[in-house]
Amino acid sequence: MGWLIDFFFIPAMEASAERRYSGGAHDYNVTWMLLTFGGILGLHRFYLGKWLTGLLWLATGGLFTLGLVYDFWTLNGQISEANQG
């Protein structure tokens, strides 16, 4: 039964995501991998061109892991913002 519900809802969810998150020079998959495996070092921030906060993440271990949690929560928006600017 769940697959039947998914059959109808997933296309709408995909269309909504396409409108919310813009593509561009920064790839979502690459940025998420950098955050997951090198987030405490700020690798994802360097990739997005945020050099100052990247250095801060590098020096403080992801801003004492609080910044890392924040980035997991807001990364898609940060990527969209970097792609638009």
The value of Rg in angstroms is 15 Å
Structural class: mainly alpha
Q: Quick check: average pLDDT?
A: 88
Please report the distance between the alpha carbons of the first and last residues: 43 Å
If helices are DSSP runs of H or I spanning 4 or more residues, what is the number of helices?
5
Shape verdict: elongated
Order of helices and strands: HHHHH
Largest beta-sheet characterization: none
How many strand units?
Answer: 0
Strand content: under 5%
In terms of per-residue confidence, which ranges show pLDDT below 50 for 5 or more consecutive residues? none
Residue share in helices?
Answer: over 70%
Q: What do you see in this structure?
A:
It is a single chain. The chain has five helices and no strands. It starts with a helix and ends with a helix. It is an all-alpha fold and 85 residues long.
